[in-house]
Known about the structure:
- Chain B: This is Chemotaxis protein CheA.
- Chain B: InterPro entries: Bact_Chemotaxis_CheA, CheA-like_dim, CheA-like_homodim_sf, CheW-like_dom_sf, CheW-lke_dom, HATPase_C_sf, HATPase_dom, His_kinase_dom.
- Chain B: Keywords: ATP-binding, Chemotaxis, Kinase, Nucleotide-binding, Phosphoprotein, Transferase, Two-component regulatory system.
- Chain B: It catalyses: ATP + protein L-histidine = ADP + protein N-phospho-L-histidine.
- Chain B: Residues 285-309 are annotated as: Disordered.
- Chain A has one domain (9-85, 93-104): Response regulator (Rossmann fold, 3-Layer(aba) Sandwich), CATH 3.40.50.
- The longest helix of chain A has 13 residues, at 12-24.
- Chain A starts with a strand and ends with a helix.
- Chain A has a five-stranded parallel β-sheet with strand order 2-1-3-4-5, with helices on both faces.
- Chain A is α/β, with parallel strands linked by helices and 121 residues long.
- Chain A has helices at 12-24, 35-42, 61-69, 88-97, 109-119; strands spanning 4-8, 28-32, 49-53, 79-83, 101-104.
- In chain A, helix 1 links the parallel strand 1 (4-8) and strand 2 (28-32).
- Chain B is α+β, with helices and mostly antiparallel strands and 739 residues long.
- Chain B folds into four domains: 3-127, Up-down Bundle (Four Helix Bundle (Hemerythrin (Met), subunit A)), CATH 1.20.120; 177-219 and 226-263, Alpha-Beta Plaits (2-Layer Sandwich), CATH 3.30.70; 348-539 and 553-589, Histidine kinase-like ATPase, C-terminal domain (Heat Shock Protein 90, 2-Layer Sandwich), CATH 3.30.565.10; 591-727, CATH 2.40.50.180.
- Helices cover 38% and strands 20% of the residues of chain B.
- In chain B, strand 10 (568-574) and strand 11 form a beta hairpin.
- In chain B, helix 1 (2-30) packs antiparallel against helix 2 (36-55) and helix 13 packs parallel to helix 14 (443-464).
- The chains are: A alpha/beta (121), B alpha+beta (739).
- Chains A and B meet through helix 1, helix 2, helix 3, helix 4 and strand 5 of A and helix 1, helix 2 and helix 8 of B.
Amino acid sequence: MSKTVLTVDDSRTMRDMLKVALTTAGYTVIQAEDGQHGLDVLAGSQPDVIITDINMPRLDGFGFIEGVRGDSRMRAVPILVLSTESDVEKKQRARAAGATGWIVKPFDPVKLVDAVRRVAA
Amino acid sequence: MDALAEIKQTFFQECEEQLVELETGLLAIEAGDHDSEVVNAVFRAVHSVKGGAGAFNLTDLVHFAHTFENAMDLVRVGRLAPAPPLVRVMLRAADILADLVRAARADAPHDAARAAAVAAELTACCAEAAPKGAKATAVGSVAAAAPEPAADDAFEFVPLAVDLSDFGDLAPMPGLNRFRITFRPRPELYAKGNDTVILMRELALLGDALVTCDTGGLPGLADIDPEGAYFGWTVMLETERDEAAVREIFDFVEWDSTLEVEPVAAPAPAEPDEEEFVFEPIPLDELPDLGPPDLDPPAPAPGEAEPSQAVVVPLRAAEPAAVPAAADAATEHRPAAQASPTIRVDLDRVDRLIDLVGELVINQAMLAERVNEAGLARMSQVAVGLDELEQLTREIQDSVMAIRAQPVKSVFQRMPRLAREVAMQVGKSVRLVTEGENTEVDKTVIERLSDPLTHMIRNAIDHGLERPEVRLAAGKPEEGQVRLSALHRSGRIVIEISDDGAGINRERVRAIAVEKGLIPPDTKLTDEETDNLIFLPGFSTAATISDISGRGVGMDVVKRSIQALGGRISIASVPGKGSTFTMSLPLTLAVLDGMVVTVAGHTLVIPLTAIVEILLPKATEVHGFGGNARVIGVRNGFIPLVDVGEVMGFRGSLEDARAGVALLVEIEGGARSALLVDAIQGQRQVVIKSLESNYGHVPGIAAATILGDGRVALILDVDTVAAAGSRVGSPDLTLALAG
């Protein structure tokens, strides 16, 4: 019953790092390259946790979170925001959009997994 | 760690892509495109580089990227206008960023002073930014009041105004700490995917927890909002951890709940709240089973009814009918509009495929010849089938060649930076315009284009464009323009480099050529011929050899490298208006259009690109001079006549040149030579087979090919053959005389 995490990030490096950290911890990882792609992927999957970047082309993290929260099937899925932004304003916007929590880049794999565990039932 | 090293490689690859994005974006901004999407793309590029660099502890890179990002962010929020001076600083910053990435990749040192200088410039630009609030985005009062968190690399702790002064110095107490935690979530907490039960589980991990649920707020059934939050919890926690550890658990939910964490001095029994409905404390093990919270990979338990991830849940079917409110947004899902997917393939495999297709082409040609020999009717089934095969073969060949084809973008991309640097060094202002960068050509051609293009762009800026004051005096804009374009024309790629400078100074070119002994002083030359003098070896127009153009390579080297690719280069210049260099190159190096000729019973192929003209020598035109040397009179000049059969050692000299055909070819340095062969068989596309890798180097032979009849034919190295046969002639003289 390994849990599934959807990671949404336009950076291949970041996607790879997330994947390694999460699969090592026993999670199944599915990936998307930007917010729009994330919503497309969600149409065919049901992750337990979503981790998303903020700055992305096509549809940014805020828009993506709103999209997820607007989908009755997905609205209760915990969403962690992954961003280098340490500024409160951005975090506030992410929260307003419906983010569950956040992880600050660069992350340490232990802390990442810790954060996922803290929101995943 | 292997996986990490691999990711690091990915990071560097990605950096290269981001750097391209960055430069493209900045150039677009410089050109006046202030669209927010362009600005955002530039910001994202810097941001991504910084993010990845942070993960690999590339501190220099992170710091520089951070400074850059700050400036870019100010532009993004509209507090800093992307004026030309700022964009120029940013372009330089992009160059530094590229240097830093490469230094990090090679683990080599970088020019820290230069990076610091540009960083300082960026910071100076930022200082000019409009004050926050002038056009900054609206900030909620809570957020504005909250101070910037200090630690970047940890979970961020958002300070909450909790007055702890009453508790004195109780916080860091050795031994067991006791806390009373009262927690009342608001509906928003659940709406954001948080869950109280998880928080309680986390608390229980810290020590002994006694959880009391306060259900006092629960209204009557009719009044219950299914999405409301009616419960509150009180937790008595005994833990070795401090208050910060407790608060960290509520880090994500503080905004959406009322939270109080009070240190409790004495191990008093849990005082139930004085509410009316008080429930008995629920032991933690009676909480819903959430599964093990540990980090170990959960073992797949047999018989557990967890739905597999592979199951696709139909969007509509899965929707609970009771929640129509938020369902509307679900229709937002659009089908994926992604860029066409790509795969990475080992180059060797592609080359192998190209080889095989080459074999196929040859085989198909052989088959066609056999069928022809068999004397079958043109409309016979076999002949028709063969036609189709030929069609297919050609299509396969084209498709395979297309795999190796790449846009010239990869080379063109490097030029803006070069132009900037050269312009800075020579104190000129330049705008480089590139066009047709998506034009595709064989990978090898692209790789070998880089040096000639670099040199020509340098030349265009250094020699082509006038100094700013001269330009202004001539009524031109101060900023010079160099245009680099690529396009496909009749099966070849044509690359043009043009400048709007002064054009070629023909008097000066001529004077230099005479002075260097390249042409006799009394030679009469057309304008075009004069322009072509710059391609002669040893020609350099710069009065002083500058750092830019004087690197020992002249236009002759450029011309030779273009010719080595089977290409041609020409120049057109208008005084006062500028010069245009045009290069025409084959799209691939795997096939070649050749003239198939016979020399002393041998079949040879001469590259069509080298051939200028075909002549039937007349007795009156061929003149012998000095030993065996002969020249042929072409219009009003003489060109060395080279007997290919003799040079290749097939036979002795052909006594009567009239028995053969002369192919006028252009060789290195722009000289011309007439190659004498016995007969012409025809013109054909041939597949190039390397002779070096299959046999060895043969002077005078460039490569080999296999003809339709299965015989190997050698492809002539025109330059070497012509040079071997015309030692007596002066190529420079020939150039000057031949038109």
